[in-house]
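Re: your question from the hallway

Yes, I did run it. Sequences:
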Amino acid sequence: MPVDVRLPTVLRVHAGGKATVSVEGATVGEVLADLVRTYPGMAGQVLTEEGTLHRFVNVYVDDDDVRYLDQLDTKVGPGATLSILPAVAGG
Amino acid sequence: MLRLPGPVYAEIVGHCLRGLPDEACGLLGGDPVSGDVERCYPTRNAAASAKLYTVDPGDHLRADRDAEARGTEIIGVFHSHTHTEAYPSPTDVAQAPDPTWHYVLVSLRDTHPALRSYRIRGELVEEEAVVVEPR
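Structure:
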């Protein structure tokens, strides 16, 4: 199932400058895995080597932060949009 | 250079003062090419700490969508330092999310708030001029 993924500025360079790309998957984990397969430059910036969500990004299905849902197992329904934003933090 | 409309400058400093004793934070919407800020998005500090800040992820998503709907982008972040100078801490530099952003620091250490802005590219920290414009 095709899913639109909105990319933050720092990742667009790996997708030919596009702000939104379409990849495949039924869960957040599948969508992100297909994203990294399609745009290998994003490897290591979205998922860790262990395959978990990188702590420097926030991922949302529509309006909801997936960390408060089922993380990478969160279902992505038909017509849903996945958004990736940088986690903004400091001291 | 970072151009801040006067009301946005006041909103940033006001949000930082209201956040005491914790650090306060927010995002800046504007033109990524010119560095002109059009509005600020005060956000909750999800870390709720006097020493750390985390822009609330839900607030960030709403700000990002609003900025896009206005034909602008999120071009930077501001946060306060409650007891230290307006200079990026090692944590700020290590966690800076985007080399194209402007990083605004507001120090509340002294009697008067001090606002400064920086570019952070990797380990390199460069201060930039801040121009506050009447509007």
